[in-house]
Design goal:
Layout (H helix, E strand, L loop, with lengths): L13 E8 L7 H13 L4 H9 L1 E5 L4 H6 L24 H14 L4 E12 L5 E5 L5 H7 L1 H9 L9 E2 L9 H8 L5 E8 L2 E2 L8 E2 L2 H18 L18
Length: 249
């Protein structure tokens, strides 16, 4: 069997990317984006191999399974909007959040683990394209560093809009994963909400909207995964095919 990746050897420092999706059951596109991330990361693609060697991805693809099963639009089985209860989730009323939050706090307290990214995937009912929400910090340098990942993603994904990406701290969003974990984790961690339109994306210029398909959502997921290669400057480690291949986006 192939030897374990360096980042999984006992005692190795781990850089962790934590991804969650489908906290709102009606936002089905978030599942397709998450599926794209997972399928890419477990594939034999040369970029996926490098990512697995250098990063640990922890993914909770469905934070609200009860709501999905029941066909709810926003709430859990007990009528809670789970994305407003991160601050103090109950093991009884919000069990998925409670479990994920405990795991994140355990990792945060482990000196061998650097929890570098938290990305929560949603779908948006009025905006076009993919875009992100980030947090606002007093520290200007930290604020600038937080903008790096969405800028790189914008270069990799034609349907991702940096101009729609925004950084906020309005009170309505205080109980969301991004906001709560952004306040809990230290300044080397980046917390985002990744939003993708229910409908369409508009390519550069005043073109007409292109309807999203399941495949296009999954492609956005693949592009999110690939962006970590650029972020961590791992491009030189990717095995190049011997024959030139057409560049795919």
């Amino acid at each position: 069997p192939p030897s374990a990746a360096a980042n999984l050897r006992p005692g190795a420092e781990q850089k962790v990317v934590f991804i969650t999706a489908r906290v709102h059951p009606g936002e089905t596109p978030s599942s397709f984006v998450c599926q794209g991330i997972i399928d890419f990361l477990v594939s034999q693609h040369p970029i996926a191999k490098v990512l697995r060697d250098h990063l640990v991805f922890k993914i909770a693809p469905m934070l609200n399974p009860d709501g999905v099963y029941l066909g709810n639009y926003r709430c859990s089985l007990m009528g809670f909007d789970l994305n407003r209860h991160w601050a103090n989730p109950s093991p009884w009323a919000h069990p998925t959040l409670h479990g994920v939050k405990q795991l994140i706090i355990e990792m945060y307290n482990n000196p061998k683990i650097n929890l570098e990214f938290y990305i929560d995937i949603h779908a948006h009912s009025t905006m076009m394209n993919g875009f992100m929400y980030g947090n606002i910090f007093e520290d200007e340098e930290r604020f600038q560093r937080q903008a790096v990942f969405p800028k790189l993603l914008c270069q990799n994904a034609e349907d991702f809009s940096y101009s729609s990406t925004s950084f906020n701290r309005d009170a309505v969003k205080a109980g969301t994963g991004r906001r709560f974990l952004g306040g809990l984790l230290n300044d080397t961690s980046y917390c985002y909400t990744l939003e993708v339109s229910f409908y369409s994306y508009i390519l550069g210029g005043p073109g007409s909207p292109v309807p999203y398909t399941e495949e296009a959502y999954m492609k956005l997921g693949r592009n999110v995964a690939r962006t970590f290669l650029d972020y961590y400057k791992l491009n030189s480690l990717v095995e190049r095919p011997l024959a030139p291949t057409p560049k795919t986006r």
